[in-house]
Amino acid sequence: MGKIFESITTHQQDFILKQKMFFVATAANEGTVNLSPKGLDAFRIINEHQVAWLNLTGSGNETSAHVQQNPRMTIMFCAFEGSPLILRLYGKARVLHQGDSDWKMYQALFPTFTGTRQVFVLDIDKTQSSCGMGVPLYDFVEQRQQLVQSHDKQGKGGVQAYWKKANQLSFDGDETKVLELSGLECES
């Protein structure tokens, strides 16, 4: 049976810092639920009640569209080595774009990537730990670099052109406002 906590415990923080990947789940009021795996050096614990993660440009922009409508977010970590554990962080999220006043403060917590699109900040309502005995054991080899290399090859202008082409609407047709909120011109 899982245990519920009001904030990130010291044990949970130690566990998070060792993880190589995490999963993010969001949903708008209607439509598709989104669940995305995340890797690279893209997760930070701000304090026991707040975390932030860096979102790189990808094929969709579901999380942003969802959070702008409904701020609920769940982040999940799984132990793929060592003792079994599943840890979920529940709370209300906000999405930060380059045009937001808090952008520089939070973006500075992460490495610089050409494909940086947003930073998400999650204010934690509760955490849950459960056994994770059904999660298989895996050996970590390395972080994939293809996404970072693709962004570097495109350059910042190419990445922003991709936002215009493929990241303005969610799969369900909801606006992400990625251009507008990043301070970039948006042509109809």
Automatic annotation (TrEMBL):
Domain Pyridoxamine 5'-phosphate oxidase N-terminal: 9-128
Gene3D superfamilies from the UniProt entry: Electron Transport, Fmn-binding Protein, Chain A
Pfam families named among the record's database cross-references: PNPOx_N
Superkingdom of origin organism: Bacteria
Protein name, UniProt field: Pyridoxamine 5'-phosphate oxidase family protein
Source species: Parashewanella curva
